């Protein structure tokens, strides 16, 4: 099964959008830009819409998820929408007892710690039927976006597994990394399950109209290269196998991953997202000069006076010229307290210097 | 002023202890080992002692701080005591309104955000008088330790400043890193103040009997190399200037710092502590093969079956042979849930294979 005739990459709406060109490794007429977490708490229109609506509910109501995805595209004139969702949405859709606690993050009803816990988890799966609200939200969004591509969103299996084993957000994911060494068989079954769930979640978004995808391995930076290659990379590759054969680029991103960049590419990524710690020219060297890059304005500059921020953005664009292609982004998500007018100004600046 | 005649490095008690030899770059007869956070929550005798006693109180009561420092030395037979304290203790001693909230960490009465906040902070200082309980605790401890050296403990100015600007623990220290770029003048005054406070705290421990020191820059890994060199390194160098001229080695440690190792050495460190993410032979290469290393058993292995853990410890010792000298440690602190008998077994193993 390939893409339907009405898909924006098939009817041609997004085929030559600057973002899609850059993800293919070309240099479009302008340097494309979008912001991780552009849809969300930095926007007053988002906060209005979320009044009295829980986070997961807002992800699973197609009208809301679509409108939230579109808000930053309208406001900032960015070159892509990123599907509004959360890393744990596919877990919820597969029947896992998980919610997002305000001010805390994802909290599971019961942490997955033992082989028996994994057995119980493996009875669940993400069905096509459960994906209906996601497909609907994507279709609604793509209809409105026109020639602006939508990027599909999913969390990588390690990050999903870390949430499931810890039961809540943690600093160093020690319980998850302990399972990896203490019970590698359970770890492998757990991450394999997570790979299929998140892979299907991503595939569903693409079939419904997304023109590219991004896999977020938020916590991969807590791993050594050896552990990544042995215990994590294979499940990320399995997740991405669900979109192989579909004509969409895959961006792969994590923070604190300077030691993992080539390994994160080798699981099947086309584009590497670089966090703010590693200058793009260095990242390009680490990757052998062959991979389109995305990034990496440091969010810590967003509160600085404009001349300081402008110089930093220009430096990011300049260093990005070393890579085969470059999509400007932040080197981490938009902080909630960001003044959104600053983001709009960055978009104008990046488009003007391209 | 140099060390008093009764200091263990002057009367010779610790001068040729394996730890001190290794820190000097020599290869002693056994490979020395200690554990970051060996004093603390993993020990039942510690939990007994802390019943009804707040964290900062336990650091500031000389009898308690000394006993807690000694407990793991007696139990595990490690090659050093690490002075039981907390990164924010010198702030409290300087009159800053800070406490350690159980399950949260350091919380300030008021975050330091503006130039005026920094002005008010600069009216405070760490006096010799305020250091009395620290000196007393160190003296009590050194009397009991005999030929086992005590390592003095302090947090680096960036990590202290991050707590002060955020007002509480945070994931990416964004408020602190924003001040760095938005108001570099206030940032510089703040970290300069923190450097003198933490430097005096370290110097006081050395004069009272510590035979080595470790500076913890827990959050340095959140920085790019450029930001570290411009906005952080100078204050760490200023902190360490307080112990220059004293005949003690300085260990410098942070997590997620693979991109910062040479920069963290260049502020005046003699030994680099390596976190669990970077194999010691790679760290040694990054440092040009000239620096004694400390580390880096991954705490995630502490819950694994003994043969798996043993193989990992042997691998760490083997990779450590590439460096000029090696002190075995964890690549992060002892997790609270660690079975302490496992730590004792690691000490026996490391001493047996040396």
From TrEMBL, chains A, B:
Localization (cell): Cytoplasm
Domain of life: Bacteria
Keywords carried by this UniProt record: Cytoplasm, Decarboxylase, Lyase, Porphyrin biosynthesis
Signal sequence residues: none
Record carries keyword Lyase: yes
Chain positions recorded as substrate binding sites: 37-41, 86, 163, 218, 332
Record-listed E.C. numbers: 4.1.1.37
Metabolic or biological pathway: Porphyrin-containing compound metabolism; protoporphyrin-IX biosynthesis; coproporphyrinogen-III from 5-aminolevulinate: step 4/4
Name by which UniProt lists this protein: Uroporphyrinogen decarboxylase
UniProt subunit comment: Homodimer.
Site (Transition state stabilizer): 86
InterPro entries noted in UniProt: UROD/MetE-like_sf (IPR038071), Uroporphyrinogen_deCO2ase_HemE (IPR006361), Uroporphyrinogen_deCOase (IPR000257)
Family classification: Belongs to the uroporphyrinogen decarboxylase family.
Ranges of residues in domain Uroporphyrinogen decarboxylase (URO-D): 32-41, 151-167
Short name of any one Pfam family annotated for the protein: URO-D
GO molecular function: uroporphyrinogen decarboxylase activity
Function: Catalyzes the decarboxylation of four acetate groups of uroporphyrinogen-III to yield coproporphyrinogen-III.
Any single GO CC term annotated in Swiss-Prot or TrEMBL for this entry: cytosol
Gene3D superfamilies for this protein: 3.20.20.210
UniProt enzyme class: lyase
GO biological process, one term: protoporphyrinogen IX biosynthetic process
Reactions mediated catalytically: uroporphyrinogen III + 4 H(+) = coproporphyrinogen III + 4 CO2
